[in-house]
């Protein structure tokens, strides 16, 4: 475990982390979490379709869900940003608490954010979470153990937090490594500083160590010059794509290359400046997008949008893509039907979407390919 950047004072040895994590996890499983809203369950079945693809209701009664991830036993684990709960949705539609993480301090856009599961050797599955504490954002992990989890272990400390622009998406790449999207935490200039962790895409080994092949020696920084990365996904060729929130304009989808500079805060959208990598797709107005999660089925990207209240379908170009503008074939789904959309997850031949409507949030599924 390593601490980086401005939160170096948070450095702890592994024994301290395991002891603390064990105490927190046991307290949560013993029922010490604060009162929460009851969890409603939903038996899978058709929901009103309105205009657009057929929708299947999977769960209701969630409180500001942020991320979904699938365990190998078929359960879908869901994080709630403000309650600090991770919930478990079984294949038969039962929604139950898995764990409450009391170290989470929610506020504004910070709280319990991204989830990922990485299978270790043998049968072990590790659940990773990106969360905000009182002093920083960090990545932790805990082993899935039946209907609960093991001790919480800090993996990466010291990612700056703020009321907004906390990033939070974490995904395992085809290379087996963990990728982490961060926001600039309102410190715009830090996005251009490779020694800082905000405004970046980071890459670490599953145990928190730094891959030798990273572009900056000894650093988790994989790419920089980002404003607020919220979506990560890989296409059929193994290329990494990221969705990023712009400043009231120029929301972006970028093709990510190691060590490259994506321009924030000097430029947004297509700048034609040799110092920076231009985005492949741009939404001129956040009213149409405000992109959060990015899920890729083959070479079709599905981008869940917050302010835009829609799901964008973007056919990704093969070969060397041309930067800027609108990708040919881009179309809108669910426009205005489900409110703010926070996450999208491929589950078999369905695309699951989590809404971001406070205590009225729910999870729906769309059958793929969508008509």
Order of helices and strands: EHEEEEEEEEEEEEEEEEEEEEEEEEEE
Helix content: under 10%
| Continuous helix count | 1
Mean pLDDT: 89
Q: Give the name of the CATH architecture.
A: 6 Propeller
Please describe what this structure looks like.
This protein has one helix at 14-29, and strands spanning 2-3, 45-46, 55-62, 65-70, 76-80, 85-89, 95-100, 112-119, 125-132, 137-145, 148-149, 153-159, 170-172, 178-181, 200-204, 221-224, 229-234, 240-244, 249-256, 281-285, 291-297, 300-305, 311-315, 331-333, 341-347, 350-355, 361-367. The protein starts with a strand and ends with a strand. The chain is mainly β and 371 residues long. It has a single domain (2-39, 72-289, 317-331), classed as TolB, C-terminal domain (Neuraminidase), CATH 2.120.10.30. β9 and β10 form a beta hairpin. Strands 1, 8, 9, 10, 11 and 12 form a 6-stranded mixed sheet that branches. The protein has a 5-stranded antiparallel sheet with strand order 2-3-27-26-25, with no helix packed on it. Helix content is 4%, strand content 40%. The chain contains 1 helix and 27 strands.
């Amino acid at each position: 475990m390593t601490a980086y950047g401005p939160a170096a004072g948070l450095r702890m040895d592994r024994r301290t982390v395991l002891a603390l994590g064990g105490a927190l996890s046991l307290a949560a499983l013993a029922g010490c979490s604060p009162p929460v809203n009851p969890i409603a369950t939903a038996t899978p079945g058709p929901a009103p379709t309105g205009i657009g693809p057929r929708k299947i209701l999977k769960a209701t009664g969630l409180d500001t869900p942020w991320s979904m991830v699938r365990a190998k036993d078929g359960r879908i684990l869901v994080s709630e940003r403000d309650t600090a709960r991770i919930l478990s949705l079984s294949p038969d539609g039962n929604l139950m608490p898995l764990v409450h993480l009391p170290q989470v301090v929610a506020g504004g856009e910070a709280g319990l954010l991204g989830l990922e599961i990485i299978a270790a050797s043998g049968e072990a599955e590790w659940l990773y979470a990106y969360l905000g504490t009182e002093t920083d954002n960090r990545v932790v992990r805990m082993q899935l153990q039946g209907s609960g989890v093991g001790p919480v272990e800090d993996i990466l400390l010291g990612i700056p937090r703020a009321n907004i622009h906390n990033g939070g998406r974490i995904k395992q790449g085809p290379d087996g490594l963990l990728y982490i999207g961060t926001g600039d935490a309102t410190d715009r200039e830090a996005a251009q500083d490779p020694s800082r962790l905000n405004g970046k895409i980071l890459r670490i080994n599953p145990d928190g160590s730094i891959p030798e092949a990273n572009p900056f020696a000894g650093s988790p920084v994989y790419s920089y010059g980002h404003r607020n990365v919220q979506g990560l996904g890989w296409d059929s060729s193994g290329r990494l794509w990221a969705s990023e929130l712009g400043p009231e304009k120029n929301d972006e989808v970028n093709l990510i290359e190691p060590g490259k500079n994506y321009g924030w805060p000097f430029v947004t959208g297509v700048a034609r400046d040799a110092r920076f990598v231009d985005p492949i797709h741009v939404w001129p107005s956040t009213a149409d997008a405000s992109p959060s999660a990015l899920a890729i089925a083959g070479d079709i990207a599905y981008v869940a949008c917050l302010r835009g209240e829609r799901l964008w379908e973007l056919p990704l170009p093969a070969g060397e893509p041309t930067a800027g503008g609108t990708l040919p074939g881009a179309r809108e789904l669910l426009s205005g039907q489900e409110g703010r959309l926070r996450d999208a997850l491929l589950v078999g031949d369905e695309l699951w979407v989590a809404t971001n409507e406070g205590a009225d949030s729910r999870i729906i599924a769309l059958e793929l390919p969508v008509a």
